[in-house]
């Protein structure tokens, strides 16, 4: 019980400090999910294998040829319904994600993060 109370107090303190910085908790959650599930392919930087670009970023650079940014984090046109379509169906080399892996709320949080 003491541990539970201490944990609750800690969680409260953390969310207070996040709120104090003006960060929307949904955006914070969206960034965490994006970094875990999407950034390995859609990040801006070079991959762990030192390839120059990650597969998602490289595919989108090729698709748009500069008309739209290659990195999803530089896009502002990806609403939750659009993300849902790609994430639930997959696209080309991109795998689809089941609801057990990524909830609808997670996708909405990613959309909020990308729009932020
Ligand atoms: C295994 C690598 C991989 C992962 C993980 C991945 N993607 Fe992708 N994604 C791709 C590739 C490759 C494409 C380009 C597919 C194509 O050419 O049809 C793509 C395309 C997309 C597109 C289409 C953009 C456009 O304008 O055509 C969206 C949106 C997208 N991904 C979102 C996501 C999100 C959100 C996540 C995390 C939940 C994610 N992807 C995880 C590889 C990945």
From TrEMBL:
Q: What is this protein called?
A: Cytochrome c domain-containing protein
User: Which residues does UniProt assign to the signal peptide?
Assistant: 1-20
Biological source species = Erythrobacter westpacificensis
Tell me the SUPFAM superfamilies matching this sequence: Cytochrome c
Please state every residue range assigned to the domain named Cytochrome c: 25-116
Can you tell me where the transmembrane regions are? Answer: none
Supply the InterPro entries for this chain: Cyt_c-like_dom, Cyt_c-like_dom_sf
Q: Which UniProt keywords apply?
A: Heme, Iron, Metal-binding, Signal
């Amino acid at each position: 019980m003491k541990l539970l109370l201490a944990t609750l107090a800690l969680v409260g303190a953390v969310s207070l400090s996040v709120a104090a910085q003006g960060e929307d908790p949904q955006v914070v959650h969206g960034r965490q999910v994006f970094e875990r599930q999407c950034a390995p392919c859609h990040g801006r930087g070079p991959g762990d294998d030192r390839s120059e670009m990650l597969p998602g970023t490289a595919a989108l650079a090729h698709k748009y040829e500069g008309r739209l940014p290659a990195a999803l984090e530089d896009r502002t046109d990806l609403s939750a319904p659009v993300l849902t379509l790609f994430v639930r169906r997959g696209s080309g080399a991109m795998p689809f994600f089941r609801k057990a892996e990524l909830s609808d709320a997670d996708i909405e949080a990613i959309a909020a993060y990308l729009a932020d």
